[in-house]
Amino acid sequence: MSPELAASTDDLVAQPTTPEAKAPNVVFDVRELDVYYGEFRAVRDVNLEVHQHEITAFIGPSGCGKSTVLRCFDRMNDLIESARVDGTILYHGVDLYDPRIDPVEVRKRIGMVFQKPNPFPKSIYDNIAFGPRLAGNKGNLDDVVEHALRRAALWDEVKDRLKKSALGLSGGQQQRLCIARAIAVEPEVILMDEPCSALDPIATARIEDLMQELKSDYTILIVTHNMQQAARVSDRTAFFTTEVNSESDTRTGVLVEFDSTDKIFSAPSDERTENYVTGRFG
Question: What's the CA gap between 260 and 103, in Å, rounded?
Fold first, then answer.
């Protein structure tokens, strides 16, 4: 990880902030993660590891905190005034929530693709070039744009209309454009929050195929309500559920089980996981 992640804190990124050695392919090490909105604890006790060049899926019923946890990895919850993150998320051994860490630099390394395709009201070309320009890229932007669009399996469909508005693309094309836009700034990790929920089955299949291709170069975390999708594309799966406070009727998300996807769907360790993946709950 480059020293720019923490401005003027070369020592912080040169050495892990924990004495415990982790396997070199562990990108994120999450320990005792709690997320609060004001005094309300929305998610509690999340412990998991995200491995390099794998797809990790978060599944569970609505309101169980999947997206809230996902947004912790690129510090998007910082943008919510009442949000507070307790516990630790280590990124290659560095605490992402250390006060010396620059969240803007974090988001350069950890890209985000949202549930609804959100291309800028600009040309296809300018959508892809926006991030590199903002980052001060002095190279050939034409090459950057082409490379990103090729990696997102979109180049052949748009190469003759790069100056046309991105809003004229289909929903599936817009989502692949958003993936290309994330790739253009050369992140290590791509977070995807329900990236296929607004797409038809054909567009969904293209995005799933694309994820499988991209994991050779990127580490991917995906939130999905579609259990079949999680089973098809992911290497590891985290199942979340909700605990209801009978007095206040509030719901707190909790991580029930995290394991290889095969085990989660064929031989889960927790009865709650089994009930969810077999359709008896949720």
Answer: 30
Q: Where are the domains of the chain?
A: 3-277
Q: How many CB atoms lie within 10 A of CB 223?
A: 24
Calpha distance 89→115 (Å, rounded): 23
Residue 113 near residue 177, CB atoms below 8 Å:
no
Q: What is the 3-state secondary structure (H, E, C) of the chain?
A: CCHHHCCCCHHHHHCCCCCCCCCCCEEEEEEEEEEEECCEEEEEEEEEEEECCCEEEEECCCCCCHHHHHHHCCCHHHHCCCEEEEEEEEECCEECCCCCCCHHHHHHHEEEECCCCCCCCCEHHHHHHHHHHHCCCCCCHHHHHHHHHHHCCCHHHHCCCCCCEHHHCCHHHHHHHHHHHHHCCCCCEEEEECCCCCCCHHHHHHHHHHHHHHCCCCEEEEECCCHHHHHHHCCEEEEEEEEECCCCCCEEEEEEEEEEHHHHHHCCCCHHHHHHHCCCCC
Mean pLDDT, range 28-50, rounded to an integer: 95
Q: Is the dihedral of CA 163, 202, 51, 216 positive or negative?
A: negative
Beta carbons within 8 Å of 103's beta carbon, 6+ residues apart: 75, 78
Gap between the Cα atoms of 157 and 273, Å rounded: 41
Let me know: does 243 contact 256? Beta carbons within 8 Å: no
Place of tokens 């992911």: 234
Please report which confidence band the pLDDT of residue 280 belongs to, taking 50, 70 and 90 as the band edges. Answer: confident
Under CATH, what is the fold of the domain 3-277?
Rossmann fold (3.40.50)
262 CB contacts (<8 Å, ≥6 apart)? none
Per the CB < 8 A criterion, the answer to whether 166 and 123 are in contact is yes
Taking only the tens place, the pLDDT of each residue in 231-254 is: 999 999 999 999 887 777 788 999
